[in-house]
């Protein structure tokens, strides 16, 4: 059974973690959770309220990581999922995060990213020449990283599938499952 790596950290968006995690399990993939360290992670819920210029944040669920990023051999995994939230703002500074994520792009393996995860990809140079979705406030990050921001619910560019935020989950995961099934089918 192919293994998929899902990278999270404290303040990962709750729905952007659990929806792909459970959908991948349902499909028959084994999912391993990596974080800066082995610990119980605390997620957050981002929601939208009328007449508020940005989203609000509430405490979400917690979930344990299976391994630390320093323990990850990315060659062992068939695909990668990167949720958003606030976690990306510190994950992108982790050298093991950068090592692992870069491997998936260099090896042309399936990658799904959503929301603020694009802010971790732009500094790595892996968005250059790519079309990608992200939370609309991250459009400047995508463009500074050499990518083309696309305001859509599921953008497929080769084996990379991106989306804006959790309301896009059905389209995003449907598209990612198509890419994943073609590249790393469950037997």
Automatic annotation (TrEMBL):
<dbReference type="InterPro" id="IPR029062">
    <property type="entry name" value="Class_I_gatase-like"/>
</dbReference>
<feature type="domain" description="DJ-1/PfpI">
    <location>
        <begin position="4"/>
        <end position="178"/>
    </location>
</feature>
<protein>
    <submittedName>
        <fullName>DJ-1/PfpI family protein</fullName>
    </submittedName>
</protein>
<dbReference type="InterPro" id="IPR006286">
    <property type="entry name" value="C56_PfpI-like"/>
</dbReference>
<dbReference type="Pfam" id="PF01965">
    <property type="entry name" value="DJ-1_PfpI"/>
</dbReference>
<comment type="similarity">
    <text>Belongs to the peptidase C56 family.</text>
</comment>
<dbReference type="InterPro" id="IPR002818">
    <property type="entry name" value="DJ-1/PfpI"/>
</dbReference>
């Amino acid at each position: 059974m192919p293994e998929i790596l899902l990278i999270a950290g404290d303040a990962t968006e709750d729905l952007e973690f659990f929806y792909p995690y459970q959908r991948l399990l349902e499909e028959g993939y084994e999912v391993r959770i990596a974080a800066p360290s082995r610990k119980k992670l605390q997620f957050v819920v981002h929601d939208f309220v009328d007449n508020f210029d940005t989203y609000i944040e509430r405490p979400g669920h917690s979930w344990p990581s299976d391994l630390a990023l320093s323990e990850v051999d990315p060659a062992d995994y068939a695909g990668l999922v990167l949720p958003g939230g606030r976690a990306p703002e510190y994950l992108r500074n982790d050298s093991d995060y950068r090592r692992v994520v870069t491997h998936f792009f260099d090896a042309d393996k399936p990658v799904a990213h959503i929301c603020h995860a694009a802010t971790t990809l732009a500094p790595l140079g892996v968005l250059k020449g790519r079309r990608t979705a992200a939370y609309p406030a991250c459009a400047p990050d995508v463009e500074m990283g050499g990518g083309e921001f696309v305001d859509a619910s599921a953008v497929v560019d080769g084996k990379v599938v991106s989306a804006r935020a959790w309301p896009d989950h059905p389209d995003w995961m449907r598209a990612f499952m198509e890419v994943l099934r073609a590249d790393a089918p469950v037997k």
